[in-house]
Amino acid sequence: MPESEDLRQLWLRWIRNGLLDEGHSSDTLACYLGQAVAENLPGWQPMVEQFLYHVRRLARSKDRWNVKAAVQHLRNAGKWNSPLVAQIATQCESALGAAESDNWPEAEEMSIYVESFVRAAFRNQDWGRAYGTTRKVGKKSENSVRC
Questions:
Q1: pTM (predicted TM-score)
Q2: Cα separation of 23 and 134, whole Å?
Q3: Is residue 83 within 8 Å of 91, Cβ to Cβ?
Q4: Where along the chain do its domains lie?
Q5: N or C: which end of the chain has fewer CB within 10 A?
């Protein structure tokens, strides 16, 4: 875990710029942030706050990849039994019905996607069931007519 101020600043920059949003990096971030919060380590609160703001921004985006990245952060936190799961879920939940989604053709589909995983986070972290719900919605939207 970064102990020097320079390393913490580097992590803050990486979080802010989305460099830890995918793959192993996202998983590693979930592990370290969860551990830092669980152990109440000094100097980590700014990173946690930046991370939660970043997840909120991703979830409110009009970009499928960003929304899915926000949900992946949630799932990774759950994988590590992070004390941040509820806070991340709250940030994702804030995107539901947000003004940022106005005039976005995929808003309804992505809202259902986010809501399914948020519900799973607050209940039992049954990510498979949440994914199954979103797959059903995806099939319905594939069959619908889009103008």
A1: 0.84
A2: 21
A3: no
A4: 5-143
A5: C
